[in-house]
């Protein structure tokens, strides 16, 4: 998939910042050791000196035998100093690699290039930048697990599902928290169903926040918005690669399925997204006000049989949006 040039620049900046950050950590560690343990610092300097010696040796044009002997000697010196340095650090209570430069990506050593190609970590950063751009109009930072209250849900009346609304919603909250905290690939998708104002968007945005912080690419959007954008691009009225991104993001949150305008184009788009993501073992969170029978009428058996393999969360209670507007919390 090709991405807009600006996302490559964002990724480059991100990787440069990462490398600079790791270099800052190393410089700070070196300053600390220099100040507290000058003898360990001196060891570290001698170790760095062996690299200089190696360069000189390479440029000295010795005979093969002389070169090999000198090289072996240098190697032994380097090893001896390294062992000594590590032992001294450990003796003073530091990690043995306290004076090593650490890499966020061990493949490309934070250069963004591995094996002559853009490293995986670089492409992940590009994808995250593109996803962030697609999410820019979403209220991603507005909802959090911590401000999801169970007090809005009835604690007395048993619902047709055989428990109180509060019990059902406590389970849903737990489920979503665990899902977000243990997010990994591949994992299952979620189908959130329930009437308006019961917290589906709130919980899915909360999941998005946690999963984005783990470094995954997450696209969050309402079906009406994302589908409209995809349609505009499909008919050449807008630039972008929304559809490939919807297929490719680590996690896709497709909110409010069924609220979009009814069309053949949208229902086949929905099928393709779900089918492609399932084949690639990538999770999708779908939320909707529709009943299963309504989903079948609208999107067909093939789509719904795929949705049915996801974990289903039924939302219960009375419209929280309304309760908040009228200022009443029921107990
Ligand atoms: N348990 C809760 N605690 C605190 N705020 C909540 C809770 N549930 C919902 N809200 C808030 O109520 C409003 C409506 O919730 P939300 O948008 O998540 O409902 P929804 O199930 O997605 O509804 P719809 O089907 O209409 O999209 C939001 O502002 C949300 O933050
Ligand atoms: Mg919603
Ligand atoms: Zn890398």
Could you explain the architecture of this structure?
It is a single chain. By secondary structure, the protein is of the alpha/beta class. It has two domains: 5-118, no CATH class; 135-326, P-loop containing nucleotide triphosphate hydrolases (Rossmann fold). Helices cover 56% and strands 9% of the residues. The chain contains twelve helices and seven strands. The protein has a five-stranded parallel sheet with strand order 4-5-6-3-7, with helices on both faces. Helix 1 (5-36) packs across helix 2 (38-58), helix 8 (242-248) packs parallel to helix 9 (264-279) and helix 9 packs across helix 11 (301-307). The protein is elongated and about 85 Å long. The mean pLDDT is 93. Residues 143, 147-149, 152, 196-202, 256, 289, 320-321, 324 line the site of adenosine-5'-triphosphate.
